[in-house]
User: Fold this.
Amino acid sequence: SIEIYSQPLKPHLPAVGRFLIIVTFYEDALKIMTQCSDQLWCLQVSTMLGVSTAVIMKRHTEYAVIGLLSVVVIQGFGYGLIIDLTFFLQNLSVIGRLVMVFSETMINKKKSFAGIPSMSETDRKK
Assistant:
């Protein structure tokens, strides 16, 4: 069955999935590095590379997603394409993927606190 062959891959699938969601930002950073020499865009490239790597490594994912969302907005205004329909729809797709990453992070955070017992008012009085 396929289950036997896919078993070794299962632990790596979440990281591969996050990489495929974030690869757009790596590609964009590479394009900006080869085509532009402006300092503002260099800062944007380092932001894209740093926070994209943070998402893949599951390090401070909430802040990384906010950083990537800000990159999307800054690019829209920076390139003057914020009102272009094609650019808007592309960015809507990217924002949707970032929301998926963010929601996965929030779900995993809730699960990590699930086993911690809470103390109610009646427990304190005993």
The mean pLDDT is 82. The CA atoms of residues 107 and 113 lie 10 Å apart. Helices lie at 2-6, 13-35, 39-56, 61-78, 85-112, 121-125.
